[in-house]
Amino acid sequence: MEEEGCLTKVTCGANRRLHISWGAGNELHLCDIAPTGVPASSRRKDEGSNLTVVKWGWQSGSERRVCYDCLEPWIEIQKQRTNGLAGEGNWWASVLEYSERVSQVLGRQDDLRVPREVPANEEDMWIAVRRIVWELLEIFYVRPSASLSAQIQDFLGWLQRNSQVVIGLDRKHASDVIPLETMLRGIYECELPEEEEQYWASVELLVLLGFNEAAIDLLGIHSAWTRWQNRDTAVRAQFEILESLITILQKMPRLAGSNSASLGVKVFNNVSDYNLYKSKWSLACRQLLQNEVLWQECSESSARTAKGAKTVLNGLLGQETALRDGTRAWSELLCAQLLHRYPTIESLSELSSLTEYCMERCSKDSEVIVDILLAILNDNVQEVISLSSQTLGPWFMAHAPELILARPGQRELREVLTPIQGRQGNQFEFFVLDFAEALMTNPSMWQTVCEYLAWCPTCGETALQTFLSHLPLTIQDDKAALLAMQIANKHGLPAVAAQISRSVGLHSWSKGQRARALFWLRGHDDVLKVLEATGRQEQEISPGQWEDEEECWKLLELLEDMPDSKKHAVRLKLARSMAEHFLH
């Protein structure tokens, strides 16, 4: 039932029986039945019958929060689709709004000044992985871009935000990589930060990943600034190099994506203008590197500063060795390559090749992100759907199809949009039904289950009717039953609403709950039939006790089904038999 193996094991000894039955949704009941003929008093404690309930797809607290918070935007996009808006030219705008609302629930953060921190626990990691893939689908399938260059810049922003999280997914090697926030925290606590081993490595990594503001802030705590202000001429070369390096970082050019406001650098919408400015900017970097006298003087006062600043400049100029040595994982290397070496890639196939080149450092633990990313870049929609359904679970597959369906060309989606053989709905509807079944194992989420079932276009009405009809409402309070009736009436199922009220009323009657029974049965003719058969008035009803509840249900079913014209005598006899237990 899961790729990891069996969920549980049930022992069934000799001369015993194993009874298996389905529960609600992804729930299986296994009863190990003790042999008959053996008195219970003579059995050992472990020889009795045992019931095991197996559930899968169970949601943690964080997952349930995501389910609740994403329900409203999902219903709204389904309403718009039902109203025929999906065929309009601006449908992408509705899907984009939906995507942004869902990703906000997942913890969306578009600020490119700092990278995302690695999630602290498994629950947060579950959400982070789905947010990362969700953002990828939005970039390549939903969000319109003025050019391929803008789309690639959006992808570059995705790498900047999520590179640290992707490293955290690599469980085999994540422990060997010091989180960036940990590196920075240790540096700021030092008296002479530039003498620390991690100082220039951190500056270089921040620059390679495009976090220039953070890098400038880190350069600002270099002790040369204070020493120069105190008229220490020995640090003149350090001061000039740091000052020039900060100016270069401040003026570093970037191509614009969908949103260039948060880049914090000189942004260009036109590739030609960008290349012209970039050539002048790169010349300034090379001129600084070629000032041998300045570097020699700097090396004499601080060899670490000279070496570190040179490495940063080489990275800014896109030197391959500097990019590879300064990054720690494929996500960081790919980000550095796109930012400093290949900023003007002209096709997704080139981007795919560059990504594969950088993934030489990738380990198997991050394959979920790697494989889906490569499938997107290779324009293999079917592979994206298949990989997502195998690895990202029912919630993701119930909500992500709206993003995939928003892409301009949908020839590749013809297969998944075709009804499944032997079923009425298509593959995307099946994903929603599968998610609803996963929710059914949690009794507190039955209302959420109803909402998802109600919006399945072909199977939803039947599935919702079946689910509502089998809710154990007779043992719950009246509020739950009223909510179930409200949901049934809301979605055009009055017969189900009537069945709920009748079931709760009859159960209350069988337990001698007079007032509750009259409340629920007042809109039905069951009580009237009994009263007419016995000649009593409603006011004469008083609490009673029905010994055999199962027999009560059988009698009432017979009363409902028998025609008056042919079986009136039997009908009267059954009514009187039942009334003896309810009425004085």
From TrEMBL:
Q: Where in the cell is it found?
A: Nucleus, Nuclear pore complex
Which segment of the chain is annotated as a signal peptide?
Answer: none
Name a GO molecular-function annotation. Answer: structural constituent of nuclear pore
Which keywords does UniProt give here? Answer: Membrane, mRNA transport, Nuclear pore complex, Nucleus, Protein transport, Translocation, Transport
Q: Name one GO biological process term.
A: positive regulation of DNA-templated transcription
How the protein assembles, per its UniProt entry?
A: Component of the nuclear pore complex (NPC).
Q: Which family does it belong to?
A: Belongs to the nucleoporin Nup85 family.
Described function? Functions as a component of the nuclear pore complex (NPC).
Protein name, per record: Nuclear pore complex protein Nup85
